[in-house]
Amino acid sequence: MKRLSTTFAVILLVILLGCTGCATQSTQPPPANPPVAPTVDDPDDSISTIVTEMIARMNAGDVEGSLAYFADDATAYIIGLPPTGMEVYAGIDQIRALWQDSVDNHFEWETEIASVEGDLVFVQAKTWHDFTRMLEVAPLDYNDVYEVKDGKITTYGTIITDEALARFMPAFVEVVTLEEAAPSAEEPVSGMSVTIRGGTCSIDEPAPLQAGDVEVNLTIEDENKGSYALTLFNISEDKTILDLMASTAGSPPDWAEILLMEELEPGKSATYTFTVEKGPIYMICWSSPPDLPIGNAGPVEVR
């Protein structure tokens, strides 16, 4: 799989909404009267209105007004875009940096509520951003989900559609230098450890895997979701981790073979074994509710 050169790393910071871990904080003062979540008779109308009014504030360039609809410990997931297919923004300060960058790049949101199920609001979205305007691919389409509890958005996930990714990538590679990833010099291993903490996941041993039986130690340190899951895949040679992440909004595609799929309760640890015959492999971690990818890794070399 190809990876992005350092020369163009900065350009990724403006894809869609902003950059992970940006240190820049909003210079816009909080509004004198922050918005209060509306109270209506129908709970479905109430939580969907919270989402639509948050979006309206964002479209008006009111960063702090939009953020007032989020819980302080909310997490946002941007899924399916280069370079890794997963950006995680944990907490209101990181989301603020993302939102401010969006406003600075004339971000526009066009949304339609698709459905409301309990605490979850599902939204079909189109976005415009100076970077995608420059590439002449705006608007791009996304499938969004919001979890709303006690009048505040606690989780936001947005997944680019397969069709939008197919339009975006050819234009993107025209302005980005790509280079082949060098094979790892490490000796292959027959085990890996995966930890879910801070709303995302990581592989503790990124060494190549030895073909055959592989032992996976999964540890869930987080406890704020009802359940967590781990999936491992082989995918077709003409696909990448971006394609895999964009496909998480629907049924598993026929070009992805699931090698391991295990669900685990919060705060638990378990060991699983799967068999791998060829590489590379790709990992996606999940949490629920909402049923959303929260982290990934790959390609992991197999020898």
Q: Say what the CATH topology of the largest domain is.
A: Nuclear Transport Factor 2, Chain: A
Question: What sequence of helices (H) and strands (E) makes up the elements?
Answer: EHHEEHEEHEEHEEEEEHEEEE
Instruction: Assign an overall shape.
Output: globular
In DSSP terms (H or I, runs of 4 or more residues), the helix count works out at 6
Q: How many independent structural domains?
A: 2
Distance between the termini: 16 Å
* CATH level 1 class label of the largest domain: Alpha Beta
SSE layout:
Elements: E1 2-4, H1 43-59, H2 63-67, E2 70-79, E3 86-90, H3 92-104, E4 108-117, E5 120-128, H4 130-134, E6 140-149, E7 152-160, H5 162-174, E8 178-180, E9 191-197, E10 200-203, E11 212-220, E12 227-235, H6 241-246, E13 256-264, E14 269-276, E15 281-288, E16 292-300
Parallel strand pairs: 2-7, 9-11
Antiparallel strand pairs: 1-8, 2-3, 4-5, 5-6, 6-7, 9-10, 11-14, 12-13, 12-15, 15-16
Structural account:
The chain is α+β, with helices and mostly antiparallel strands and 303 residues long. The protein has two domains: 2-178, Nuclear Transport Factor 2, Chain: A; 191-300, Immunoglobulin-like (Sandwich). It is 19% helix and 40% strand. The chain has six helices and 16 strands. It has helices at residues 43-59, 63-67, 92-104, 130-134, 162-174, 241-246, and strands at 2-4, 70-79, 86-90, 108-117, 120-128, 140-149, 152-160, 178-180, 191-197, 200-203, 212-220, 227-235, 256-264, 269-276, 281-288, 292-300. The strands form four sheets. Strands 3-2-7-6-5-4 form a six-stranded mixed β-sheet. A four-stranded mixed β-sheet has the order 10-9-11-14, with no helix packed on it. β15 and β16 form a beta hairpin. The longest helix is centred in the first third of the chain and has 17 residues, at 43-59. The model is unreliable at 1-43 (pLDDT under 50).
